[in-house]
Amino acid sequence: MKRREFIRNLGVSAAVLPFVSGLPSFASAGAAGRKQRLIVMFSPNGIVPSAFWPDYKPEKKKDDKKKDDKAENTAESAQPEKVEVPAPEPPDEFLLRPILKPLEPFKDRMLLLKGISNKVRGDGDSHMRGMSCLLTGIELFPGNIQGGSDTPAGWASGISIDQELKNFLQSRDASRTRFGSIECGVAVPHRADPWTRMSYAGPNKPVAPVDDPYQLFERLYGRMKDKDTLKSILDDLTDDFRKVTAKVSSEDKKLLEEHLTFVREMERDLQASDEQGQQHAVPALDPGVLNENDNIPKISRMQIDLLVNGFQNDFARVATLQYTNSVGNARMRWVGVEEGHHTLSHDPDLNDQSQEKLIKINRWFAGELAYLCQRLAETPEPGGTGNLLDNTLIVWTNELGKGNSHTLDNIPFVLLGNGCNFKMGRFAKFEKAAHNRLWMSIAQAMGHGITTFGNPKLCEGGALDLA
């Protein structure tokens, strides 16, 4: 029975739909099978390459190998039984550098891609094209927004990969969800321009991330009835939940109880944050200008928890998580950095103090990604096997390869999870491969057989082989 039929026949309010939509018993016909999910996480202003790209484990020299072989032969002649020789390190074994160290627990589920380039050119400066062409892979329209170059620009002229995949999944009964996609933000400015938007529903159609946890909570579950008196949205649904739990399986009953507990706790957390003046970390100007900036860590965790809960309850299969914006100037005092992020990113490489501070900033982003991975890994797959991370691919990326050079080459791409069945646990290098080809690889791995994405001229060579 489909969800709405169940609600109608049971005689309960449609307000319970958000709480039962992801229960396995109410999956729509034909929805059986593995759920594949995608999260794109963004952080700005490039990286510190020397502290980001991994080292390979040192291989044995030929002379050492000869000595090992000689020792092995001597051992075999002296003993009747063959001596077991340790297997050599795999050729793609790598050591994580300081920025990526927080992701060490997930190294076996990580795929690092070096040599991926944003080859989109045309109007706009590198920050603008780096941001608004990052997920679209196509040029910006001519416009009147002046950046750091002599050529002003407008919005992107095509759809972004997250929205492309959302539309594909929503077109099929087996993968259709309540929202299709969730767009989360952390300290994204209120202003709308090519530096602040990476998701596009189509040409000239930027999608604004929801950067206030309270607003995101409202979108998922509806408005809290009476915020001032802490009246929960659940209070009026007690009788309806009692009817539902009497009719569902024991597995669904447990999932529903966990869901209700999460909503209760999130309501309390939101209320407490509001009372402490921490409700919304986003000032009207660039992040970092006002003291609200200091609440970014709290907002980040709340947004991640809401995103994971949205996946757990099958509200969506696609999500974006955007930290600040291109040229974002957050002041990350919680890691001991007083200067603005973008300001630091322009300092020369020989400024050791600035380099150390940029490493701290990017390491913090890696830590938030590790928290996202952990939350997904500890959440069982509802109605399936394994956990959410087993069926989710996370892509962490940036608008620049390096901040002070504004290069669009060697854009960092860190892939985590197993949502696309790529060969993980490795560090792969390419030679200036267009990032359009990566988005094609991900789309095809999720069943969307596109042969081009964004600018077709940048798709030559086809999808990258990541299997």
Q: What is the radius of gyration computed over CA atoms, rounded to a whole number of angstroms?
A: 24 Å
Q: Spell out the CATH superfamily.
A: Alkaline Phosphatase, subunit A
- By DSSP (H or I, 4+ residues per run), the number of helices equals 13
Whole-number count of domains: 1
**Name of the CATH class:** Alpha Beta
The CATH architecture classification is: 3-Layer(aba) Sandwich
- What is the general shape? globular
Termini separation comes to 38 Å
Kindly describe this structure.
It is globular and about 65 Å long. A hairpin with a 2-residue loop joins strand 6 and strand 7. It is 33% helix and 13% strand. It is α/β, with parallel strands linked by helices and 467 residues long. The strands form 3 sheets. A 7-stranded mixed β-sheet has the order 5-8-1-9-10-4-11, with helices on both faces. It contains 13 helices and 11 strands. It has a single domain (33-54, 88-212, 280-459), classed as Alkaline Phosphatase, subunit A, CATH 3.40.720. Helix 7 (213-221) runs parallel beside helix 10 and helix 10 (296-312) runs parallel beside helix 12.
